[in-house]
Fold this protein.
Amino acid sequence: GAGVSQSPRYKVTKRGQDVALRCDPISGHVSLYWYRQALGQGPEFLTYFNYEAQQDKSGLPNDRFSAERPEGSISTLTIQRTEQRDSAMYRCASSPDRFSYEQYFGPGTRLTVT
Amino acid sequence: QKEVEQDPGPLSVPEGAIVSLNCTYSNSAFQYFMWYRQYSRKGPELLMYTYSSGNKEDGRFTAQVDKSSKYISLFIRDSQPSDSATYLCASNTGGFKTIFGAGTRLFVKA
């Protein structure tokens, strides 16, 4: 079946612009996670959704970052007033259960802020 | 100090060698321990998981957890060039927040 998909795969934006990154999880997966992965590092937790409920957003760096999953399926991570330090790979993962060690990752969106 | 520490490598071995990859962690509440494999320009994929202490074997791969020393290991037997990737260890307490190590880059030379 189809895996986790993310769009766009690459995004170049100018400092100060807003960006929206989309994640389409595996159909039927309850949990959805957003991570940020710097080069040479492991994924860093940003936020977690159980269905449409955002149950943890403790990893979001500041209030320029927000995420939603309004219908419990597709999720959007929005970064407002982007800064160069926001440049990174943003990854989405989904899992079939609420508490699951088994996460399926998407290909990521490479964000570059110029 | 990061909650999960991992030597970034790179680690280069000849084909057929036994590979040992290791991590340490600091949070005593961690209960689940995972190994993910990440090929270049791809997302991580779950390789194995272990609950609490002990060993788990799956084909050429063996995962070990020693909670007394907070040490996590992955062994790869008869390594193949296709095993060349970055290996990420990860842990969580049984909830939804997973902490990843930085990853170890492995090269298996034919």
About this structure: The mean pLDDT of chain B is 94. The longest strand of chain B covers residues 85-92. Chain B is about 0% helix and 55% strand. Chain B touches chain A through 24 residues (CB under 8 Å).
